[in-house]
Amino acid sequence: MSKIQNGGCQCGAVRFSVEGEMGRPSICHCRMCQKAFGNVFAPLVNLGEGKLTWTKAEPARFQSSNFVKRGFCPHCGTPLTYEAPDGMALAIAAFDHPGEIVPVVQYGMESRIPWVAHVNDWPGMDTMDDLEALPFLMQLVSYQHPDEA
Fold it and tell me: How would you label 68-101 residue by residue, b for 16+ Cβ within 10 Å and e otherwise?
């Protein structure tokens, strides 16, 4: 029986399912991926042998270069795909269980933001341990689409 992994955007308007073995997960630091994700890098996994099915609406697409389209939710803006002539990759964090998809290689190192190498050196805390933000957090109601079990 093939493994099935589900995911989608933050608002739930775009959902997908991948059945089968996906390709190599990666992180891309190139400037185009940074801009597309609004972040310091883009964690992606290519479809490989996996079969993608859009289970709700398909994403909107932006032609980011002469070869590549980027899929995103037209309602909430969540980045979802990197679509090139050699195949499609999906945003790892868009999966319902992103921790199961572990990157094994980094690309675009020429654009890596230097402080990224030190993230694990900084102190960290769980969200609810931030005492200054606790009054705000206790009143927060999330409208985010829930991950599926």
Answer: bbbbbbbeeebbbbbbeeeebbbbbbbbbebeeb
Q: What's the pTM?
A: 0.93
CATH for 12: 3.90.1590.10
Report if residue 71 sits inside a domain.
yes
Would 145 be classed as within a structural domain?
no
Q: How many domains does the chain have?
A: 1
pLDDT digits (tens, 9 = 90+) for 88-145: 999 999 999 999 999 999 999 999 999 999 999 999 999 999 999 999 999 999 999 9
Within-domain flag for 144: no
CB 9 within 8 A of CB 73: yes
17: left (phi over 0), alpha (psi -120 to 50) or beta: beta
Q: Which two tokens stand for residue 79?
A: 């980045």
Q: What share of the chain is helix, strand, coil (3-state, %, to 5)?
A: 20, 30, 45
Domain that holds residue 78: 4-139
Domain assignment of residue 147, yes or no: no
Give me the percent of the chain exceeding a pLDDT of 70.
Answer: 99
